[in-house]
User: Which sequence fits this backbone?
């Protein structure tokens, strides 16, 4: 699908021309990704997705100039990446990495202060404006309660938040985050992604995140770059990419299938037949989840369910069939009961 | 520090009252007696040397610890002191069997000058090797390990030399290995002082880079640090300081590790803008105190300086290790 032509800024925050990324040894160049043509506009949140070892990190490192491009070019705010000096680059691009930063006896605010590096003089003294920017960055990531705490004594999620503030203090056009959520627990992941989305809405900042958190990325991103096996790059809104079948192509294996409508993955378990659930709300949804996990295909209409029909209410579950009349009041007992049932094949021969 | 400085001038095999010391320092001794001469000719250069050497080792240790993000790095992490020892060993031990005997057998000024020259040459040889290799290696950890390997190689060569040497020469080498601030006369201070001051100023001028390097080389680069240049400059500066001190005073252990940790612990910060001046003061003071302690036996003789610094240093390193178990440097 072609992107709709709305009012776009003249110069994209980032653009690549026939970029090839990979590794060079003395004699040869080994490209991991080739002919990469990408553009990111100010205010966009981009998620880079793809299976392990397919070149996501290599691409991210090349965009951050942490390794040289093999061929082609990268432009940052309309200027070729390689023509920028180290501090010019740092004033255009802020980076947050996966690695845990181990530093002793430094307050969170002092870590954010370090982000003023490319703006301060050779001794690193900070002006009033520098301090203002630091305070703004801390405020922007909602970390003012952390500012005076020891950086080594806050949680992983809080630390990444502070590292984002530090990158913001560079006042860049663009943030590049390489798997920033890898060490974080689920709420911290969602919060960090929400924060990044919020930041792109606040100003002309563009954000690129590489992540393994597919479901969260599909929910949060404006644009998805998906690297599929073979090195092809599929780009578009998350919904475009889902519709193209790229997600399935990139991630499905023998054990998992991507459920496009729910934008989540499902186990592929042996067909134990079709089942339906009578009931309402969350209890019914949970009961369907149990049946799916145990290998049933759950259908909506009880009349089309061939194997079993389950009734769920506030007090528990109830299963009645020709052979049995069973009930229980938690899902553990339901799961245990259906695991004990004979498989579909045998049931069919019986009936 | 001022107190320690005065004490170091006052105490010794003959004690001079502090009042007299101040008089001598003001340049208005009422009478030029033996005490005044002792203070002026022996103790003042010795104390100044201790001050400078302590500051230099502390700063070099701080630089190495930050650069390698390793709490146990010290000025000699790159094998500098082993290189210096090798140089000295070659001169001291080799002199008996070679033409260099012309210099080596004389225990006077020339012999000492030769020792200093040899130590600097040995240290610089190792430093040059490490710098050449490190400009081709990406990982700081690899550089650190290479430095250690060079150090081991140099130490092994010293051992080989020791194995084939006469006892008197071994004694001379051991004496050097004890470490001492007393060997630096006014004349040598003229070379020693500028070198250490330049090295300390280099570190002071790089506090911005050192602070950024606290987050690791990748982050430092992303914030605009010219990482390779900063690394080579820091290694060069720190190693120069280590080499100069080693050459003039012998391989003085532990000050380099312990002083930065003492400062970090006392001040509760890793900010180099605070740490650099603090380490200079603390390093100077600790060296002076070690110097005073080494003279405590009074007329009975002197304790080897290295024994004193290690007695102070070892508990500090142990404490730091125990603290880092609790997570200070973990992860």
Assistant:
């Amino acid at each position: 699908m072609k992107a709709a032509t709305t009012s776009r800024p003249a110069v994209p925050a980032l653009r690549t021309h026939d970029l090839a990324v990979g590794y060079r040894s003395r004699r040869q160049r080994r490209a991991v990704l080739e002919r990469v043509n990408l553009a990111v506009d100010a205010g966009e949140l981009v998620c880079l997705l793809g299976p392990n070892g397919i070149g996501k990190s290599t691409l991210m490192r090349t965009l951050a100039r942490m390794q040289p491009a093999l061929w082609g070019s990268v432009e940052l705010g309309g200027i070729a990446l390689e023509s920028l000096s180290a501090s010019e680059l740092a004033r255009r691009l802020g980076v947050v990495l996966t690695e845990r930063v181990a530093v002793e006896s430094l307050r969170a605010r002092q870590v954010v202060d370090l982000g003023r590096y490319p703006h301060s003089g050779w001794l690193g003294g900070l002006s009033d404006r520098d301090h203002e920017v630091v305070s703004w960055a801390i405020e922007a990531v909602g970390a003012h309660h952390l500012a005076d705490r020891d950086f080594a004594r806050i949680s992983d999620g809080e630390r990444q938040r502070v590292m984002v503030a530090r990158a913001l203090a560079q006042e860049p056009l663009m943030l590049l985050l390489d798997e920033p959520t890898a060490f974080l627990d689920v709420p911290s992941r969602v919060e960090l992604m929400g924060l990044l989305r919020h930041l792109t809405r606040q100003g002309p900042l563009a954000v690129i995140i590489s992540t393994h958190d597919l479901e969260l990325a599909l929910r949060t991103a404006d644009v998805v770059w998906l690297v599929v096996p073979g090195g092809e790059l599929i780009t578009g809104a998350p919904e475009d990419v889902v519709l193209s079948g790229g997600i399935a192509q990139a991630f499905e294996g023998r054990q998992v299938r991507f459920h496009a409508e729910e934008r989540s993955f499902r186990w592929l378990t042996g067909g134990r037949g079709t089942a339906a659930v009578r009931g309402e709300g969350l209890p019914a949804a949970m009961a369907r989840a149990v049946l799916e996990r145990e290998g049933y295909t759950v259908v909506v209409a009880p009349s089309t369910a061939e194997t079993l029909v389950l009734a769920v209410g506030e007090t528990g579950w109830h299963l009645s069939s020709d052979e049995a009349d069973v009930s229980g009041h938690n899902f553990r007992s339901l799961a245990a009961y259906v695991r004990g049932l004979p498989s579909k094949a045998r049931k069919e021969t019986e009936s | 520090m001022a107190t320690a400085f005065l004490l170091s001038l006052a105490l010794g095999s003959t004690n001079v009252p502090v009042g007299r010391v101040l008089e001598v320092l003001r340049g208005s001794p009422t009478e030029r007696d033996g005490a005044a001469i002792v203070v002026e000719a022996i103790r003042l250069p010795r104390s100044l040397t201790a001050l400078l050497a302590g500051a230099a080792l502390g700063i070099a240790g701080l630089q190495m610890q930050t650069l390698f993000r390793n709490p146990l790095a010290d000025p000699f992490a790159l094998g500098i002191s082993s290189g210096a020892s090798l140089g000295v060993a070659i001169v001291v031990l080799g002199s008996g069997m070679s033409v260099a005997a012309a210099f080596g057998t004389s225990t006077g000024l020339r012999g000492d000058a030769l020792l200093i020259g040899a130590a600097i040459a040995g240290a610089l040889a190792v430093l040059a090797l490490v710098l050449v290799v490190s400009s081709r290696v990406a990982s700081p950890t690899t550089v650190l390990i290479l430095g250690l390997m060079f150090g081991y190689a140099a130490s092994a060569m010293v051992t080989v030399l020791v194995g084939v040497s006469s006892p008197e020469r071994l004694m001379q080498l051991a004496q050097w290995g004890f470490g001492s601030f007393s060997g630096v006369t006014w004349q040598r201070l003229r070379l020693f002082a500028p070198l250490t001051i330049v090295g300390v100023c280099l570190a002071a001028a790089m506090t911005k880079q050192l602070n950024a390097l606290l987050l690791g080389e990748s982050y430092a680069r992303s914030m605009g640090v010219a990482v390779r240049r900063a690394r080579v400059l820091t290694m060069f500066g720190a190693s120069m300081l280590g080499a100069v001190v080693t050459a003039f005073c012998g391989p003085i252990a532990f000050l380099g590790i312990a002083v930065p940790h003492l400062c970090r612990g006392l001040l509760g910060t890793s900010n180099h803008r605070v740490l650099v001046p603090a380490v200079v003061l603390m390093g100077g003071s600790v060296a002076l105190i070690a110097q005073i302690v080494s003279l405590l036996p009074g007329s009975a003789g002197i304790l080897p300086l290295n024994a004193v610094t290690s007695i102070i240093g070892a508990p500090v390193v142990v404490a730091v290790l125990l603290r880092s178990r609790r997570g200070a440097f973990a992860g």
